[in-house]
Amino acid sequence: MNYQRMAIEKEAPEENRPLDQSTALTYTEHRGRIKLRSIIAEASNGLTPDHVLITAGASTSLLIILTALLGAQSHLIATRPNYTSSLEIPRSIGCDITFVDLEFGTQFSLDMEKVAAAIRPGITKLISICSPNNPTGTTCTNADLCNLADLAREAGAYLLIDETYAPLKYSSEPGGSEQEPATSSSGYLGRNVVTVTRPSDPPVVRRRKVAGAGSNAAGKGSISLRQKMERPTEVE
Q1: Mean per-residue pLDDT of the chain
Q2: Cα Rg for the chain, rounded, in angstroms?
Q3: Closest C-alpha among 62, 179, 172 to residue 126
Q4: How are strands ordered across the β-sheet holding 158-162?
Q5: Tens of pLDDT along 8-61?
Q6: What is the SS3 string spanning 68-127?
Q7: Rounded to 5°, angle at Cα 115 from 111 and 116
Q8: Residue 143, CB half-sphere, CA atoms under 13 Å: how many?
Q9: Cα distance between residue 157 and residue 126, in whole Å
Q10: 157's torsion region: left (phi>0), alpha (psi -120 to 50) or beta?
């Protein structure tokens, strides 16, 4: 789908002059508060505030991502079960969907051969997975994520990873040490990979290592978003 901003949006008062915070029911900036977008851009290598769009939760983000990348003539490969929005939004716009079911007999593991076999060169626009999966709890390995990213790249498609439940930790055995699921932050997967996650609690700005750049992994000194938002800034 092709999104274009209407003239009334571009000319809206909140987009063209500082907001009067004393006025009740004042609209906020359409793309999100500039201070918050600046903080996020600062924590992301190579981005500016104009690259950042703030949404009210993951569902809105998924709506934007899925309708921007897919159309009625597009083909989507989606693992199932998956987050409902990742399945129903493509269906609602008439997208052709191939489901790769996670089966009980294989402990709900992802079958890479089925994903590869479902790709239609030039037509497949997106591969969508949920890892850790809801409700099965199974996760993809780092090798799985890299293989999926490569498959999508070779097909000229994107890979969407819903990793909302990645902060969950578990022990495989009673009394065992906690294990963290593999996520996109484990390494650089490529520009064709989109991830959906949740902030830490309390939320912190974390820097991730990107290919070609220095390591900026967050340590114990991570600054909370709340603290950074409360600081004076020159961008407001």
Answers
A1: 77
A2: 20
A3: 62
A4: 96-101, 75-80, 124-130, 158-162, 193-196
A5: 666 676 666 666 666 656 677 888 888 899 998 888 778 899 888 888 888 888
A6: HHCCCCCEEEEEECCCHHHHHHHHHCCCEEEEEECCHHHCCCCCHHHHHHHCCCCCEEEE
A7: 115
A8: 3
A9: 5
A10: beta
Beta strands in 117-215 (DSSP E): 124-130, 158-162, 193-196
Closest to 200 in 3D by CA, of 48, 43, 46, 92: 43
**Long-range contacts from 71-75, C-beta under 8 angstroms, 24+ separation:** 71/1, 71/95, 73/123, 74/123, 74/124, 74/125, 74/126, 75/120, 75/123, 75/124, 75/125
Nearest CA among 218, 136, 132, 147 for reference residue 179: 132
Looking at per-residue confidence, does 111 or 172 come out higher?
A: 111
pLDDT given at position 210: 32
Write the single-letter amino acid at 74: S
Range in 42-46, 68-72, 170-174, 210-214 the model is least confident about: 210-214
Sole residue written with tokens 């900026």: 216
C-beta atoms surrounding 113 within 10 Å: 8
pLDDT digits (tens, 9 = 90+) for 157-201: 999 999 888 877 655 556 555 555 555 555 567 889 998 877 654
Output phi, psi for 88, to 5 deg: -80, -30
Length of the chain, please? 236
Two tokens, residue 100: 């790769």
User: Taking the model in full, what pTM does it have?
Assistant: 0.73
* CB neighbourhood size of 234 (10 A): 6
